Fold this protein.
Amino acid sequence: MILAAGMGSRYGGLKQLDKFTPEGDTIIDFSIYDALQAGFGKFVFIIRKSIEAEFKAEIEKKLKGRAEVEYVFQEIDKVPEQFKNPDRVKPWGTGHAMLMAKDCVKENFAIINADDFYGREAFVAMAEYLRKTDKDSYHFSMMAYLLKNTVSDYGFVSRGECEVNEKGFLTGVTERTHIEKINGQLVRKDETGNLIPIDENTVVSMNFWGFTPKCFEFAEALFTEFLENNKDNLKAEYFIPLIVNGFIKADTATVKVLTSKAKWFGVTYKEDKEMVEKEIQQLKKNKLYPTHLW
């Protein structure tokens, strides 16, 4: 499941379809390629109606005959009637996006961002865990990264700060919507808007989760509760970490924290693009990817 409905406001355009190599590869291309190599056989893209034709034209020519493909749409008005607000302009967040796919996902699944490069090993580790997980269970998983390896030099980012116990299970995740590097030090905004230090070795989520279909029913009930509590907040977003925390607090699910040596990189700002282009070029040069993915 690939979250590709974002607006790209800080990037200045559609990161989902931007090209990062002379061959015309998008970041999604590498995630799809790695997922196919790891054994994933179905892809569900969560997009907006406004980019449907352009997005499908890009994806269809690459995945035709290689995997099952479905598209679902995340729109602001895809909420129960009583919660629709014509004044809202911001999408409802990653948790809402995931719920859009509940009718076409009946298997264990991984969910990722469209604009993050996660690395082949990360997909292999996730696929391995999902294969051995009972789809009727509440045994979930998350791919972990270190904060210092996931920040931009050009502005603030959002990350899920994770608490992990000695057995390698998640005990809590807090969505930090503003983390940035200032004079070489990492800081985050607290609840009052003040900037405070945050350890560079903090374990963070990059929205690479592994779920069973059991997650949907709980997530939907929690979303209704969230909408009720935030009906007057036009900027409130329902993030996947809110769902995960709900599971953990209710003692309903376990979330195994997976690790790999794969290197993450991504684009939040236009200025990040040059660095990502160089990283990908090096990976191709080192023969980790063929010159032409498709």
